[in-house]
Amino acid sequence: MPGNRSLSTQRRGVRQDVVRLLTLLLPGLILLGMFTFYPILKMFIMSFFNWRIGYQQTSDFVGLQNYLAVFSDPVAGMALVNTLFYAVVTVPLQMALGLFVAVLIHRITRFSVTFRLLYYLPVITSWVVVALLFRYIFNNQGLLNYFLKDVAHLADGPVRWLSTRWMALSATTILGIWKGIGWNMVVFLAALQAVPLEQYEAASIDGLGAFGKFRYITLPNIKGTILFALVMLSIGAFNTFTPIMVITGGNPAHQTEVVLTWMYYQTFSATGKMGYAASLSFIVAALVAGIAILLFRFIRPEGEGKS
Amino acid sequence: MNRNMLKPLAIVLVLLLVGLTAACSTVTPTAAPTATPVPSEPVTIQFWHNYDAGAGQIDVLKTLIAEFETANPDIKVNQVYLEWSALKNNVIAGATTGMLPDVLRGDIGFVPQFQSLNVLYEMSSLSDYATVAATVMEAPNSSARMGDKFYGIAANTNTKILFYNKAMFTAAGLTVPKTQDEMWTDALKLTGSGKIGFVEAWTGVWNVGQYIWSNGGDVLAPDNSTATGYINSPVAVATIQKLADLYKAGALSGPSMDPGAAGDTDGWKAGTYAMEIDGPWRPSLLASSGIDLGAVQMPAGSAGSIGVLGGEDFMMFKTSDAKHQEAAWKFIKFMVDEKAQVDMAKVGQMPVNKAAMTNADALAAMPLLPVFAEALKTAKARPVTPKWGDMENIIATKVAEAITGQKAVQKALDEAATEIDALIAAK
After folding, report:
1. CATH code for position B293
2. DSSP H or E stretch at residue B45
3. What predicted TM-score, i.e. pTM, was given to this entire model?
4. Cβ A140–B260 below 8 Å, yes or no?
5. For residue B61, how far is the Cα from the chain centroid?
6. pLDDT in tens, B217-265
7. Same domain, B338 and B420
8. B248 and B369 belong to one structural domain
9. Which terminus of chain B has a lower count of CB atoms within 10 Å, N or C?
10. Which residue of A has its CA nearest to B390?
11. In a domain? residue A60
């Protein structure tokens, strides 16, 4: 039957498409598998072993012992609290400031590119370089103490900014916020440009002020972007490593450790506690996934466009 | 676990962590089968080290390697510099992959740690090891001994003495302290208007052990069986309490206690720090700083002046084949011989070779050699036990908590003892 033939030709066509698709996808999938999925799987296995990395050493299966070790480790708890602190402070503040800058830049017609460049500059600068700069600012003999002591005469001696847990962490959050404003600005600027101008015009006719427009038109329109930024930045905050490593190194006595620096310490400064580090990273991954799900539940992007 | 499954991960790990240098450095050309003994392909041995380029040690090393290669045309030495922690991390990563050097010259503290990774070659099994070991000083070489076996041979040795800023002492009208009590009092007197009396770069046993030992205490039982009654003994508590008091008064500082504090070398150069108990590298690090540095024996505590034994050992690896091991051992013998040891002494490495210790050239190059030689007589090695790295990390953390006042000294050191004992129990 002619119908049958056309169907089989169609099928053959589909099969050819699938083959072609797979051929094109395969290199990417192989790379992704080798460098992303395989290590994740391997690490999951490692987290159940007392993983010995020594030459020709065998690893013993220890069940959930590594996970229990993480949960009973006071430093891991402290590192987690420090990470949460970093996330809770840096994420909303850099978003708010980034949005603020984006709104300002969005409205100006001249020098817009100049300002965008200036605000974006910290983003493209190396973390190590800016972290070192911040260390020089907050050092006992750093820039900040110089101003406080020698210029403004507000302090008698050098203030030990980095010697205690919360002060040192606050210094790193300032760095995190400063460095993140530019990224937020670019993301929000793009979102602002997509907001339909007619809505603003209609609102003007209805007599809505600048703040009202922002509250009832801008914010609902960029809700999806806000969620996107929130999720990306929260994940980013849990991946904080360089600023802590460079500015405090987790010192004094692990007080300023974040989860990644603690993981690094367990792997390299301690004698290769790979199993512990692997289970810690899975706990963190679960936590980040949980936070992301909560955020999606909390701010549903479906509100977009409704106003 | 299937070892083959490790390979892909190992490759990733090496690329990410070890970097290209280490990855490339292990690609050794296989020697062609030698039909005739004369024009054989040379064996290339990989040599990882942390000789100090700033002090000119790498230049001397290159010259020494050239001399060695001329004398041994069938051996090529490929030297790779790695900074202290990179050296350690690369061996940890290399333990998985088998990508390890043929010879390593590193901290004596690495020996027990690497031995626990099962990577070190037992050098006392070499037929002429005892003969060569007899030419080096016994105390430094004891750092390579675990049980009755040797997993290395001493490369250089050191201990620490008191360095002080002469100008600051003169300005304060102080004389050089003879006892540790005087040293602490002086530290307080020298502190103020931006100056800090004393600096300690870390809070591990490398730094605080000398004060506990000099006052008759210890950190572990002599047989390494327990820490209770040692690290938390009244002597240790009183010693750390003294340091805590100094920190509180602003007379003691260092980046591991206060991340905002200047590192020791930076602080010395800026004229901030007045005193430090440090090793033979200190003068060369301040050579062009214009700081007039004084150096004397570490002031004595109630039990004398007992410094910490430092230095480096040469180590060989199980992963090398017989041919490379033979070449590696030849190179090590060359490096511990008087000539190489004297050349290294000229750029700040204190020799272990007995003949080099009294060599006129070495003495001329290292004016402080007699001071250090005297200090070495009483210097004490840190415990040589496989878990020492973890134990010292525990002590460093707890001592930092005590010094910075986060915990009472007794409480912090009790916790250290408990944690170390748990580590010893977890065989």
Report:
1. 3.40.190.10
2. strand B43-49
3. 0.81
4. yes
5. 19
6. 999 998 899 999 999 999 999 999 999 999 999 999 999 999 999 889 9
7. no
8. no
9. C
10. A270
11. no
